[in-house]
Amino acid sequence: MQNKTTKNVLLSGASKGLGLCICGKLLKSGYRVYAISRTLSGHLRELGEAHKGRLFFKEVDLSDPIGAANAVFKGDFIPRAFPLDAFVSNAAQSYEDIVSNIDEAKLEGMFKVNVFSPMLLTKYAIRNMLLNRRPGSIVHISSICAHTGYKGLSMYAATKGAIESFSIGTAREWGRRGIRSNTVSPGFMEIGMATSLSDEDADKIRRRNSLKKAADPESVADTVAFLISDGASSITGQNVCVDCGSR
Ligand SMILES: NC(=O)c1ccc[n+]([C@@H]2O[C@H](COP(=O)([O-])OP(=O)(O)OC[C@H]3O[C@@H](n4cnc5c(N)ncnc54)[C@H](OP(=O)(O)O)[C@@H]3O)[C@@H](O)[C@H]2O)c1
Prior knowledge:
Elements: E1 8-12, H1 17-28, E2 32-37, H2 42-50, E3 55-59, H3 65-73, E4 86-89, H4 104-131, E5 137-141, H5 145-148, H6 154-174, E6 180-186, H7 199-208, H8 217-227, E7 239-242
Helix pairs in contact: 1-8, 3-4, 4-6
The structure holds NADP nicotinamide-adenine-dinucleotide phosphate (NAP).
């Protein structure tokens, strides 16, 4: 029998990197997590075993936005009458190149994963929250490079800029129904997609920020956990930079 006071969170990109860290944080904080990604990693499986009955996984490919939204919301993973309290949109891909080399197919593929799927999942998450009368919270993971710029990341940063604007609009549109929307912009973390950086580039980034270190994924996950908590009930339409002071 499920505990009715346990809050339900949909989390994308939970298999590794920051998403795995957020997943662990939310499970430790007592949430029930509905995790999606293309693969069920060993680490995610271990989290499920450590938090029996509170982690549910579905294999979903966000490069097909309509298929992904249907898989999450039109089947038995998150049915209409199942109340969703939060959606954390963390999954993303990074297509890196200089602007004069843009490959249209790669650009479109990245926008499907980083922008179109998060938008469609937000649509159905909001419908679910309205139907079930939940004052839900949405958090999109952005990136500091949407604010600072970084050579080779213009296209990736544009997906994050798009999602930040989308979040501000969502906050305006649905605030009167108690639904909040915020973004979190991590700086360079020594995990996930940033591990492809050369030691020299990683060093340069660390030297440029105030704290002279990489952003800690735990600190980013704590920020996400705060934003979906009741403690953040007056915070919406904001972007929180967790970037060791790089602007
Ligand atoms: N790492 C950094 O320094 C950094 C800095 C700023 C912002 N960020 C942001 O932080 C978030 C997490 O990044 P990360 O570094 O942890 O990346 P990561 O290790 O590459 O993880 C990305 C996650 O997204 C999922 N994913 C990717 N493509 C997918 C698809 N087509 N369908 C479904 N799931 C997909 C992956 O799962 P599967 O492969 O199993 O599908 C994985 O769980 C992203 O939004 C990223 O933009 C990262």
